[in-house]
Model the fold of this input.
Amino acid sequence: MPWINRWIDAFSVALAALVALSILLSGAPTEKHLSVYSVAANYSLTLVEREGHDYVGLLELLDPLGKVSARSEGSRWRVHYNRVEGVFQTGKTRARVQGREIELTGRFLSENDRGYVPVSCLPSLLPRFLGGPVTLREESGRLFIGSVAIHFTASLAAGTSTKLVFNFTAPVNPRVTTDPGSLRLAFTRDPVVAPASPLLTFGSKAIPSATYSEGNGMSVLAVRSTVPVMASFSNDGRTITIAPVSAPAVAQKGPATAPAAPAAPTAAPAQAQAPPANSSAPVYRHYFAVVDASHGGADYGETLSNTLYEKDITVELARSLRQQLESRGITTLVLRDSDANLSLDQRAVFANADHAAVYIALHAASDGPGVRVYTALLPYGEDDRGPFRNWTTAQHGSLSLSQVAANAITSELQKRQIPVRSLSAPLRPLNNIIGPAIAVEVAPEGNNLAQLTAPDYQELVTSAVATAIAAARDQLGAAP
Done:
């Protein structure tokens, strides 16, 4: 979407946050959820409280698992799931499934043409329909159908005391949030289960421990840290590495008369001393390109359709672009490779800390045609003064190289007959990046929104971007 729409969206998000906060302060009860994990589907259902018990809609529970139908005969409900019939009666605590009676642990309820059963009866009720074992963790609102649980191990990476590695038995996609002193991995759609002990200790000063907990349809891994850390994903989502983030060697937000010693992790002296050659400090891999999938977590970006959000398309584009860049020998770091929630400042801090030769933010839009390539539009009258770079104009010294990258990408897209425009806009975090920085916004070539999810179109665009970056590699690599 055009950049002006993002300002409108930002206002809408802020307004929604204020409304949510007012509801929270008004004392509104927290909505309860039941997460269901199965081979067929993983999904979440809203629970209702009736007669002191948690209830769930029976049809809503069975529908993602197979073919289900129901009909009402007065106070009697007949439910058919595949070839299994269940007969329920409103107000009764017993039902018949496949001709056999079963205790429901509470009354069957009918409201607004929907049938509800107590959550506590599911371990005995569902096997009658499904023909297999069911495990309920009622206190945390999690239901496991069959052997679908995902287990994990946690240990420090070999040879380091600062990198924590989680290995999972299946791919996971948690929501990642960071707070001072901790990083949280919230698993809402993944059936991650507890280790032998909910408290894990690692003997590391940087990352001393992690705790596992469950509640309201999710499980959470909370990693305690004494330094800022970030999560990176690998092994097709089966491995998550938690590692310290180096402070950027630039920028301080605030007045130009900042003190010589920064007070926040987003500030550092321009003249940073390198560690001595025999230092035991860990050596981090340097990436030529940082690719940033915009939005994520609660920030959906543009709602492209009823089922498609910008945040999902940008992750797919980021993965495709990383593959295209690395196939050309360009080392690439993807900042957001999951449904994580990173602030604009965090994105800039992570990009600056890596000192990459080029930063590429990815966006998606429904209104085309084709691709828009952005460079920063910097505010006037905020030039650098003193030893620190102004946060809002950190891009100033690299703007000409950013334009080089943008021009190269525009030219390559034109060669491939993809409609493209080159623009400047006050699009954060471009103005906070100390090196060459661009944003690439991908839209359909015409009116067919499905083109955004087509792998061949995504590859056509990302291949053009990677080819252009490779062609400008020498110029970008010489950036200060």
